[in-house]
């Protein structure tokens, strides 16, 4: 849902605005480019080129989401797909090398299986209701109630946020816990350590790029960081009114620190955001979210029923949504920063030539 | 007017896409992705005005940011390939 619909939430009887030919043409072109990108990804051998094309792929799909009016989804896709995963995959490439291995077996059997599965899926869609028909059951299961009631019940203009944070509060809590679990998984496999502490090989190559200064990038990064953080806060707290919310804001926050790490190095950025603090924040966000549910139980409501948080149910909803979005933002930001640090640590260790015995938790 | 601008942007994006597919050097691809990202920002802005929703600009700002950081990460990666040997990539 979008800003301009604040005053007049789209009613049930109002049909969606007709798409013009130009918008249709844009959609078709975008989809064609998406297909071309997929085929290029399959064909290419250089993993680096594939990662670059994945970036393009996310940008394209994000634009298609924009064209479909799903601005919140586009925001998330851009943040996670084009931003974070590109950076993480590049960090992985440093470890794995950048050429695809030649497959040992012939691709005929997989091709056969994929063709059969695809055909079965297409066959399955024949029974589905007509594509894009507004009368389809999928559009009327719970959506009608959300659209009719949420302006009075929750009272915030961005309906996506009301559904995500209030009606579907349990699901979102689950998502935050998944993000947190991902962090636990990464940390149990990879270590986060200051590169300074690595044992260096004796026959070291000249240390030129270890601390190569990037004066221009460093200055630009320092100038940009406050703006990025302010923008993250805007997205965080403006999520009730426009596209945005905790997930997106968390990613933007993390991007600020990733930029710092890229330009200043892991040593400096671990000094800026110590690992123990990040771990506490990652858990703290989940606790804020779950704690809101417990508080609403203590006040006599159901778990995550924000109505009881204030005298007036609508302001209770507002308070609840802001608080849990804050929890989401804190967890997402600190998890992403920590995962990125873990990847960079691994790459730096390979560079230093240290033996890879990655059992960090065994010792202590 | 916005429709013309959008059409022009789509053409430029196709050209950038071709460069990203064909390479042949790593730098061609990085430049292509960077340019593609910039055009995405512009297209979102144009599309927003075309459909009467200027608040898409929020999204545009964010894409510009992601693009900037992504290119820095890609360039850092190239620097890491000590033995990068100007060979072509396919």
Provide structural commentary:
The complex is a heterodimer of chains A (364) and B (90). Chain A has 364 residues and is mainly α. Chain A folds into 2 domains: 20-103; 158-196 and 210-356, no CATH class. Chain A contains 13 helices and no strands. Chain A has helices at residues 21-43, 47-67, 71-96, 108-125, 143-153, 159-167, 169-189, 215-237, 246-264, 266-272, 275-298, 313-352, 360-363. In chain A, 37% of the residues are buried. The model of chain A is unreliable at 1-16 and 357-364 (pLDDT under 50). Chain B has 90 residues and is mainly alpha-helical. Chain B has one domain. Chain B is 78% helix and 0% strand. Chain B has 3 helices and no strands. Chain B has helices at 2-22, 26-50, 57-80. The chains are: A mainly alpha (364), B mainly alpha (90). At the A-B interface, helix 1, helix 2, helix 3, helix 8 and helix 9 of A face helix 1, helix 2 and helix 3 of B.
Descriptive tags:
heterodimer; A: about 375 residues; mainly alpha; about 70% helix; globular; disordered N terminus; B: about 90 residues; 3 helices; about 80% helix; disordered C terminus
**Beta-strand proportion of chain B:** under 5%
Return Rg of chain B in Å.
16 Å
Low-confidence stretches of chain B: 83-90
Shape of chain B: flat
* SSE-based structural type of chain A: mainly alpha
Tally of DSSP β-strands of chain A? 0
Number of helices of chain A: 13
SSE blueprint and pairings:
The complex is a heterodimer of chains A (364) and B (90).
Chain A: H1 21-43, H2 47-67, H3 71-96, H4 108-125, H5 143-153, H6 159-167, H7 169-189, H8 215-237, H9 246-264, H10 266-272, H11 275-298, H12 313-352, H13 360-363
Helix pairs in contact in A: 1-2, 2-3, 3-9, 3-12, 5-6, 6-7, 6-12, 7-11, 7-12, 8-9, 9-10, 9-12, 11-12
Chain B: H1 2-22, H2 26-50, H3 57-80
Helix pairs in contact in B: 1-2, 2-3
